[in-house]
Amino acid sequence: MPETSSPAPLRVALLGCGVVGTEVARGILANPIDLEARVGTRVELTGIAVRSLDTERVTDDGFVIPHDLLTTDAEALVDGADVVVEVMGGIEPARTLIVRALGAGAAVVTANKALLAERGPELFEAADAAGVDLLYEAAVAGAIPIVRPIRESLAGDHVRRVLGIVNGTTNYVLDKMATEGLDLDQAVKEAQALGYAEADPTADVDGFDAAAKAAILASLAFHTRVALKDVAREGIRGVSAADVAWARRTGHVIKLLAVAEVIGPVDDGEISVRVHPALVPDSHPLAAVRGAFNAVFVEADGAGPLMFYGQGAGGRPTASAVLGDVVSVARRRLTGGKGLRESKDQAFPVLPSQAAVTRYQVRLAVADRPGVLAQVAGVLADHGVSIDTVRQAPSDEKAETAHLIITTHAAREASLAATVDAVAGLEAVREIISVLRVEGS
Ligand code: NDP
Ligand code: HSE
């Protein structure tokens, strides 16, 4: 029998040992035999870059990360690695370290959606030039396999639309408002107490985190470079307890959605990418996504509707996706060959937010007298906005005010904005209480 030499161990450098990094380290250190079997050679964690060497690194269930693996010299760690796992977050020094790793021929796995949404093209080009993998399954919706299914499983199909609940914190907040009648501030405080929301909840509440994920999903789904600046973004700060209660009365729930869709022909259209709160009908699968869970609903020509559901954050769930990518890049290093490159050939134009087409629900308070409903309907007709349903809530007789809930057919955002301005200018209209988009119907 000829002697066969086993492949050299695969050297993995980990950048970051926080919520996610600690669990990635555990995943490599605690299961060496399993990992070796999946990869085909031993996987060696060569070191972990951190800022402080004084902090003890231990997982929630007590797995202690050996102190001698920690280093503050991230550059030296990167230079000796076959695979670099970046879970430090932020733009710098993560970007420089990833470019350095790719330039030196190392494969990179990252969970850093903010970096990908802002500087993705530069990183993908560096990976292309070096002929190495850059994988990022954990960057969108944590544990949920969504990047690989869109990138690989649906590569032969045409994706028309992606609707995602991709921020667990805001889903938790909106769910609490719906189920317990809390107002936004109370629900955010609860989310902070549970560790979902940070002390400064801006990234989640104002939709920045979801917008970064929307940019990544749209880039993948439509083979087009979509950056964070291309995503129209509106967070949940404007959602009131009354909006949530009214949503319920009209058979909806309010969700912060990441929406990416093709407008026009699927091979020659334009795309709209946006993040905003939206009314989702109770019957839609996304309406059932509760608490801090995430879900992504994909509509493709051939596959039809698909739904991906699971934990979108947290150390262990996110590390699961990171480790899957580590195994994937490690296998390819052993077997050779190029991995999937960035797919950007479709290059759809990205529409401005004003050109987005969707349905709306407008709640308004009007004078309760004959002819007012006809006046409001007339303004919508004049602007070419078609009414689907009108509901009038019981009037406040003392104030002689009626409460109207008008749901429109699909209309351009710009037409709707002009319509709402014109309606607000009617003498009989006392207040435009809210304007919410309706998605998923
Ligand atoms: P943490 O803040 O918990 O951890 C960051 C780690 O990186 C820390 O160990 C920190 O070191 C280290 N670090 C930061 N800056 C530097 C630096 N300049 N040099 C060396 N080390 C540095 O972040 P998370 O684990 O929560 O998130 C990591 C990444 O994963 C982010 O990109 C995030 O968006 C993404 N992600 C996170 C999810 C989650 O649920 N937490 C879910 C999905 C993605 P030290 O500890 O010494 O300060
Ligand atoms: N803050 C994010 C969320 C973490 O709430 O979903 C995962 O990206």
TrEMBL record:
Active site residues of this protein? K213 (proton donor)
Sample GO molecular function, one term: NADP binding
UniProt xrefs under CDD domains: ACT_HSDH-Hom
Protein's pathway: Amino-acid biosynthesis; L-threonine biosynthesis; L-threonine from L-aspartate: step 3/5; Amino-acid biosynthesis; L-methionine biosynthesis via de novo pathway; L-homoserine from L-aspartate: step 3/3
Concerning PROSITE patterns, the annotation shows: ACT (PS51671), HOMOSER_DHGENASE (PS01042)
The UniProt record gives the binding positions of L-homoserine as: E198
Single Gene Ontology BP term? methionine biosynthetic process
Enzyme Commission (EC) number:
1.1.1.3
**Reaction catalysis annotation:** L-homoserine + NAD(+) = L-aspartate 4-semialdehyde + NADH + H(+); L-homoserine + NADP(+) = L-aspartate 4-semialdehyde + NADPH + H(+)
Give the protein name, as stated in the record: Homoserine dehydrogenase
**Native species:** Xylanimonas allomyrinae
